[in-house]
Amino acid sequence: MKCLERLVAQHIKACLPASFDPHQFAYRANRSTEDAIAITLHSTLSHLEHPGTYARLLFIDYSSAFNTIIPDILINKLLGLHLPASTCAWIKDFLSNRPQQVRLGPHLSSPLTLSTGSPQGCVLSPLLYTLYTSDCSPSHPSNLIIKFADDTTVVGLISGGDETAYRDEVQQLSAWGSANYLQLNTSKTKVIIIDFRRHSPAHAPLHINGDCVERAPSCKFLGTYISQELSWSINTTAIKKKAQQRLHFLRILRKNHLERKLLVSFYRSTIESVLTYCITAWYAGSSAADRTALQRVIGTAQMITGCPLPSLEELASSRCRNRTSAILKDAAHPAHHLFDLLPSGRRYRSMKSRTTRLTNSFFPWAIRTLNKNNPCAIHRQPHNRSPLPLDIPHLAYLPGPAAI
């Protein structure tokens, strides 16, 4: 059945335009949580370059989002996206009249027939949800709605203290959720206000359906902590704690005389993956103290494994090049236009910024890294031609036989 679902998923994706729902970053080729965070921060920081501005970031939580899909509403949306009627009929049959039972040990519940929601663990479920929410888009140019599956973030770019457009956007989003049977969980919805004005007045609370939304100093956004000061100390502390906990298991494996190659494999899969999660979004803006704290974790792992390991800077630079290469290959990526090739065809245009906050964000850093590592290479032809692949060397994790 999963093989058939994959074939249907490929067929659906082939029928969709390349520009379909550009700010939905889940289950899309060449896109990840890093892109969602980077776009959110870049939009915010670019807006904060102007005097008298601030931003509101609303992190929305839906209750059991995948279980509330209504097949009839979904089919109407699929027909509006010009999917074939036969495909829509198959999807409706796939979602309707599904028998379901629950097993707990030797006990089995009586069967229940369901015609709402999408089956858990199915290949098509994530894609169908993104199609179900594809018409959720901002109605005001000063707002941005970033989506990663069921994680939805409303970015309100406010000027002159006028929040009318932002609050109207939130109310429209709430009404859209009600019309599509998506229940907004106000108790888990958080708002962060990023305001660097010297004389900032008190901000009025935000209410949704009569409930006051909690204003938080920081919030976990797609696995990364974002604070109202846009510093990365909270995120660094969380990463360091998680990585140090896993160092304990690396020590145990070392005591049991596991060979070095396997120790390094364990390090890469369980510790390095934690250290580098969304590293392109936070590395350039992190402080020297934050980087030193995480580099100590790598140094400890290096002593345990007895093998040289790539530094945090090397890991960040490598992933920055990989992420930049993915964006350049995707002409429909929301950030593709930020990489503007100069008329010489040799370098990309640097971004102008008034503050170090924007300078040390991902996209300006990516352009500097791209120009620095490839000063004479033409990665993308001018006049919006398709990019050429970057030659990204792989990092060597293991020493040669002589070193071992």
Explain what this protein looks like in three dimensions.
This is Reverse transcriptase domain-containing protein. Pfam families: ALKBH8_N, RVT_1. InterPro entries: AlkB_hom8_N (IPR015095), DNA/RNA_pol_sf (IPR043502), RT_dom (IPR000477). The protein is an alpha+beta fold. Helices cover 42% and strands 13% of the residues. The protein contains 13 helices and 13 strands. The chain has helices at 2-15, 33-48, 71-80, 85-95, 124-132, 164-179, 233-255, 260-275, 279-282, 288-305, 312-329, 356-359, 362-373; strands spanning 53-60, 98-100, 103-104, 107-108, 112-114, 143-148, 151-159, 190-194, 207-208, 211-212, 214-215, 218-221, 224-227. Strands 6-7-1-8-11 form a 5-stranded mixed β-sheet, with helices on both faces. Helix 3 (71-80) packs antiparallel against helix 4. The longest helix is centred in the middle third of the chain and has 23 residues, at 233-255. Residues 377-404 have low confidence and may be disordered.
Give the tags.
single chain, 404 residues, alpha+beta, two-stranded antiparallel sheet, 13 helices, 13% strand, globular, disordered C terminus, methyltransferase activity
Fraction of residues in helices? Answer: 40-55%
Global morphology: globular
Count of distinct strands: 13
Order of helices and strands: HHEHHEEEEHEEHEEEEEEHHHHHHH
Structural class: alpha+beta
User: Using only CA atoms, what is the Rg?
Assistant: 24 Å
Please report the number of helical segments: 13
Oligomeric nature of the chains: single chain
Pfam families: ALKBH8_N (PF09004), RVT_1 (PF00078)
GO molecular function: 2-oxoglutarate-dependent dioxygenase activity; methyltransferase activity
Organism: Gadus morhua
Protein name: Reverse transcriptase domain-containing protein
